């Protein structure tokens, strides 16, 4: 399994298309504490407005991806308008995850830079304007494929703010990260991770911190907690999830969980079941 697939097998990607058609005038998109937003601009011009940031003016077909929750507004000409597809994006158990944290506040990529996207857009248009059974589900899945293509592009072109995606794109660090993702319960330490990367311990530790912004030990802890969250959401007990990701006891896992998220596993599960916050960084 390649590095990005190994991550997304643990951090679920979900997209929900909520609008497809012509957009005229001003349209606000409220701050949603759980989700990012995707805007596929097929025809413009259109302008993106965000608090505290310069406006982004788009005149060619473009994908806009806001990986973290934030208020924003799209404005289009009142006459001609703009043809858009708008969706919400969720990665993992909540908004705080290593994929979205790796990206800038706004990812802006011309459609011409995404190979093969034309066929995908054709399928999206076909589904958007035909009331076929399963229409919404098909649109959501196609939107997820678009996000995957966008993540590939970000890794290949270095459109990251450091973090996990930058690490996965690094030929040496990617080997160590894939090893951790595939077997988080293993007793990883600095020598074994450096060996997986084919680097000396000192060079690996320095390079890892420079690219991902965390020490290898901190990243390993984060990944174990992220994986345990998924397992608990799937019905495993706290103790089962703790052992599955390498903790010797539920108490040790709970201490690490609280240190990482500021909330106990039990309280997190309760909040999740009620639709409350899923991480608290």
Overall average pLDDT = 87
The number of helical runs is 11
Strands side by side in the biggest sheet: 1-8-3-6-9
Low-confidence stretches: 276-281
Helix/strand-derived category reads: alpha+beta
* Amino- and carboxy-terminal Cα gap: 30 Å
Described by the principal axes of the CA atoms, the overall outline is globular
Total strands: 9
Biggest sheet record: 5 strands, antiparallel
What fraction, in percent, of the residue positions are helical? 40-55%
User: What order do the SSEs take from the amino end to the carboxyl end, as H and E?
Assistant: HEEEEEEEEEHHHHHHHHHH
Tell me the β content: 15-25%
Radius of gyration: 20 Å
Descriptive overview:
The protein has 281 residues and is of the alpha+beta class. The protein contains 11 helices and 9 strands. Helix 5 crosses helix 6 (190-197), helix 6 (190-197) crosses helix 7 (201-212) and helix 8 packs across helix 9 (238-244). The chain starts with a helix and ends in an 8-residue tail after the last helix. Mean pLDDT is 87; it is low at 276-281.
Helices and strands in order, then pairings?
Layout: H1 3-8, E1 13-23, E2 25-29, E3 36-43, E4 46-50, E5 56-58, E6 62-66, E7 72-76, E8 82-91, E9 107-110, H2 117-128, H3 135-157, H4 163-169, H5 171-182, H6 190-197, H7 201-212, H8 216-233, H9 238-244, H10 250-261, H11 265-273
Antiparallel strand pairs: 1-8, 2-7, 3-6, 3-8, 4-5, 4-7, 6-9
Helix pairs in contact: 2-3, 3-4, 5-6, 6-7, 8-9, 9-10
């Amino acid at each position: 399994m390649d590095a990005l697939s190994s991550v997304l097998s643990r951090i679920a990607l979900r997209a929900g298309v909520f609008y497809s058609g012509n957009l005229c005038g001003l349209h606000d998109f409220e701050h949603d504490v759980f989700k990012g937003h995707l805007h596929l601009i097929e025809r413009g011009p259109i302008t993106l407005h965000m608090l505290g940031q310069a406006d982004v003016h788009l005149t060619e077909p473009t994908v806009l991806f806001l990986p973290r929750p934030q208020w924003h507004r799209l404005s289009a000409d009142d006459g001609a308008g703009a043809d858009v597809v708008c969706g919400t994006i969720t990665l993992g158990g909540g908004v705080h995850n290593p994929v979205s944290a790796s990206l800038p506040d706004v990812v802006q990529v011309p459609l011409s830079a995404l190979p093969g996207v034309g066929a995908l857009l054709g399928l999206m248009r076909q589904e958007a304007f035909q009331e076929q059974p399963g229409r919404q589900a098909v649109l959501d899945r196609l939107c997820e494929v678009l996000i995957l293509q966008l993540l590939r592009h970000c890794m290949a072109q270095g459109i990251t703010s450091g973090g996990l995606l930058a690490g996965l794109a690094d030929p040496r660090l990617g080997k160590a990260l894939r090893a951790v993702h595939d077997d988080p319960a293993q007793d990883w330490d600095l020598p074994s991770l450096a060996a997986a990367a084919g680097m000396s311990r000192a060079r690996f530790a320095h390079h890892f911190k420079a690219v991902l912004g965390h020490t290898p030990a901190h990243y390993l802890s984060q990944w174990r907690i992220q994986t345990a969250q998924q397992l608990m959401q799937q019905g495993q007990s706290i103790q089962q999830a703790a052992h599955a990701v390498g903790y010797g006891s539920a108490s040790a896992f709970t201490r690490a969980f609280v240190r990482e998220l500021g909330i106990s596993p039990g309280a997190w599960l309760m909040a999740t079941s009620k639709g409350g916050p899923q991480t608290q960084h």
